[in-house]
Amino acid sequence: MYFICIYRSYLLFLLCRLQNKISTTIYTLNPIADIMAKVKPFKGVRPPRELVEEVASRPYDVLNSEEARIEAEGNDKSLYHIIKPEIDFEPGFDEHHPAVYDKAVENFKKFQDMGWLVQDPKENYYIYAQTMDGRTQYGFVVAAWVRDYMEGRIKKHELTRRDKEEDRMKHVRCNNANIEPVFFAFPDNERLEEIIRTVTSGKPEYDFVAPDGFGHTLWVIDDEKMIEEITGEFDKIPSLYIADGHHRSAAAALVGNEKATNNPDHRGDEEYNYFMAVAFPASHLKIIDYNRVVRDLNGLTPEEFLEKISQNFIVEDKGTDIYHPNALHNFSLYMGGHWYSLTAKPGTYNDQDPIGVLDVTVSSDLILRDILGITDLRSDKRIDFVGGIRGLEELKRRVDNGEMAMALALYPVTMQQLIDIADTGNIMPPKTTWFEPKLRSGLVIHKLD
């Protein structure tokens, strides 16, 4: 089963990659495709209310196999058995082995047979709320149009890796479903905000706090008039933006595209023409900092390092208390038990350039590259990255224990900067954005048939 699925789909994947115009033509020549909506409701597959906390999990890519094994211990209903099915094999088993993908299919079927996942009888939208540190963000769970992704109306700001794309494509192909959603943003829309306020004033379907302390709440929208209005409002929005989940977005859209290419009777309104996303108004989202730690000073003494930095930055010693960057172009450096404020001097950045204005660009060029000799953030083993969710205490710890020589904290990127970069067709430098909280997987699943 697995090898047939992979062989056929892989050939189609190559076809779509090498001849993307062919798949675009399939959509363009089909009159049904030209009247399809930007988003649509769908028959969600989801756990009964009393099982949601047992089923729901963190996303597949925020923990390794052993961590998933520990979290799922003693819980047959955990979604990890579907999204990280290697936990059902002996530790160390190759997570990309064909048997692992077969196990995902087997477990997905088992969850449905056992009633741990049940498909809604009609197409709905859903509103999903996440609460962290007293702040709540509300998003619409929708099925997003593959054609919008293929033609660039669902906009990206990061590069993707082929191996990671192919892993998730195998998972989508063989399960014939989007098990986990992707994370979108869209420009604020007042009518959609009103709908959020109306729906969330009612009783939710799910409402729980996960073990990490983050709250997750879900409402089902089954009113036909409201569903029609939501679809219409999204049709007015020129672009959607991938906030997080670029590999999942690419995999989901490319599998949908494969299915269109492989279907001689393709009309354009089949379910595989859409993939699952949670779309949040941009003003609801907050990007947190994504910081750097470096193992050595490239042969420099701390004094020489600070002297070189002072050529392009105003350097202030802030003492031993943790110092947080307080504005764009202000950085926090920790080294030798002291925190320093670094403020980029005028002329060292370009506020008119969507890439040049980013503090990750300023620090990468003027500190990491020019002083420390780090030119490839993706592959250089001298540098590591720490999500802001861990706090600056984690930077201090990794320097104080001798693992790293210095740490650099950055002021967070804004949603407007992300949108500007996506709108201009640019790509953010690596390790620029960190979104919290992550979407909880298993609240809703989208089947492709």
Task: Provide a descriptive summary of the structure in words.
- The protein is α+β, with helices and mostly antiparallel strands and 449 residues long.
- The chain contains 15 helices and 21 strands.
Which features characterize this protein?
alpha+beta, globular, disordered N terminus
Short summary of the structure?
The chain is α+β, with helices and mostly antiparallel strands and 449 residues long.
Weakly predicted, low-confidence segments: 2-29
- Average pLDDT confidence is 91
Estimated structural class: alpha+beta
The outline comes out as globular
How far apart are the termini?
18 Å
Secondary structure tally: strands: 21
The proportion of residues in beta strands is 15-25%
How many strands, what sense, and barrel or not for the largest sheet? 9 strands, mixed
Task: From the alpha carbons, calculate the radius of gyration and give it in angstroms.
Answer: 23 Å
The helix tally amounts to 15
**Approximate helicity band:** 25-40%
Write the layout of secondary structure elements.
Blueprint: H1 2-18, H2 20-28, E1 39-40, E2 45-46, H3 52-55, H4 65-72, H5 80-83, H6 98-113, E3 118-119, E4 125-132, E5 135-145, H7 146-150, E6 154-155, H8 162-175, E7 177-178, E8 182-186, H9 190-200, E9 206-209, E10 215-221, H10 224-235, E11 240-244, H11 246-262, E12 274-281, E13 287-288, E14 290-294, H12 302-309, E15 313-319, E16 330-335, E17 338-344, H13 359-369, E18 383-387, H14 392-400, E19 406-409, H15 415-423, E20 434-435, E21 446-447
Parallel strand pairs: 6-11, 8-12
Antiparallel strand pairs: 1-5, 2-3, 4-5, 4-10, 5-12, 7-21, 8-11, 9-10, 13-20, 14-18, 14-19, 15-17, 16-17, 16-19
